[in-house]
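Can't paste images in this forum, so I'm doing it all in text. The chain is below; anyone willing to post the predicted structure tokens underneath?
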Amino acid sequence: MNGTAPRRRGRPARKAADTGPSAQQKILEAARTEFAERGYDKTSIRGIAKAAGVDPALVHHYFGTKDEVFAAAIEVSFEPALMVPALLAGGPDGIGERLARYFIGVWENPVTRAPLLAVIRSALTHEAAAKVLRTFVLRRLLERVAEDLDVPDPTFRAELAASHMLGIAFLRYVIKAEPLASADTEQIITMVAPTLQRYLTEA
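Text version of the structure:
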């Protein structure tokens, strides 16, 4: 025996720089950039791997399919594991304002906005992108908020809230309709918060 552990089958040979959280982070950052610049349809696993400086098999190993890489790149923008507890921490009172402030804040940040623009645009023409948007924004974010608030019809309420916020995102950031595109964020939050509050709390 030479003391060297046998290499596991089914995984690519990797350099030290291609392993661990740093490799995953490089892949996610590259994916966000690729999806933002190229859109869903023209982005490939091979292109993401090239931009990240890793083997394409490593992208598959960490994330699986292109759809799953896409979903992971979007999740980095929203950080639901951190933000959902923060949104709910104050209870029902003020949940509409907190949700509006959080959502607008994500879109106002150029770093997190870029991949979200990609998913919004791609969802209009590609079912896979639309599925990511439905699954992530509705199921993993808004529906969790509604369920934790213990109100009737949480799915319906989450869909109403999602339609409101995604409509604002589309008009403000995608087609840049005025005067919404140039409106102050505090003005938008003030106008939107009461409606979200009603969707998520009123019996």
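The chain has a mean pLDDT of 79. DSSP finds ten helices and no strands in the chain.
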